[in-house]
Amino acid sequence: MAAPRWLPLESNPQSFNAWSQDLGLDTSSYSFQDCYGLDPEVLSWVKQPVKAVLLLFPITEAYEKQRKAQDEQILEDGVEGVADVIYFKQTIGNACGTFALLHALANCGVPLADGPLKKMFEDCIDKTPLERAALISNNQDLERVHTETAQSGQTATPDLDVEVDLHFVTFIEHNGALIELDGRRNSPVNHGNIKEGLLEDAAEVVKQIISLSDSIQFNVVTLSPTPEDD
Question: Which residue positions are annotated as catalytic (predicted)?
């Protein structure tokens, strides 16, 4: 039986905020916003505290080679400091945008209103990544919001069967460490203790990923306090 497939989400704050607000995030307090560059001066413009960083990037042969090597090391050595991170194994095609949003909102400590998303996160606590994935697959509210958001983007909605070579990952701070969350991996990835800040340290990992591609199809979005003029 083929794995289910959803329409891919665009990487833009408007879509992310519509998705999140529908499912219980008060976007007047925290919202998703574009990060326009990775230089220290540009990063300093982002309102703090940053709660999560989302990256959209092209999957290249060089990236896949690095990812598989890291995953093999994870299988061999394990990962410290991530046992209580809410991590979802991605079992739905083209749904990495929603998985990135779930990874951000499940782990960043931003309050959510009572509703299906808050309840799902509560139900996730004692489950495995695959059991959490089943909760997503069976959540009609989540699938509805994902589909509505995907169909209301700024570009034409692709066919459901199109293979997308762009992928989302999420970076969060957990117990002082920079954690990368990607449903394609074997587990969360611990990048070590944060030195400068979540955004600044995540930017260094993003630069490494960018170096593995000749593409310009990269986009960074932060979850941070909503600017007063929004």
Answer: 96 (nucleophile), 167 (proton donor)
Distance, in Å, from the CA atom of 182 to the CA atom of 114, rounded to the nearest integer, reads: 26
In this predicted model, what pLDDT tens digit does every residue of 164-202 receive, in sequence order? Answer: 578 999 999 999 999 999 999 989 999 999 999 999 999
Cβ neighbours of residue 175 closer than 8 Å, sequence gap 6 or more:
81
Residues 6+ apart with CB under 8 A from 4: 91, 92, 93, 137
> Is 217 inside a domain boundary?
yes
pLDDT in the model for residue 6: 80
Non-local (6+) Cβ contacts of 138 within 8 A are: none
Q: What is the pLDDT of residue 150?
A: 85
Rg (CA), the chain: 17
Distance CA 179, CA 173 (A): 6
| Residues annotated as part of the active site | 96, 167
Q: How many domains does the chain have?
A: 1
Structural domain includes residue 214: yes
CATH number of domain containing 21: 3.40.532.10
**Is pLDDT above 90 for 151?**
no
Domain assignment present for 19: yes
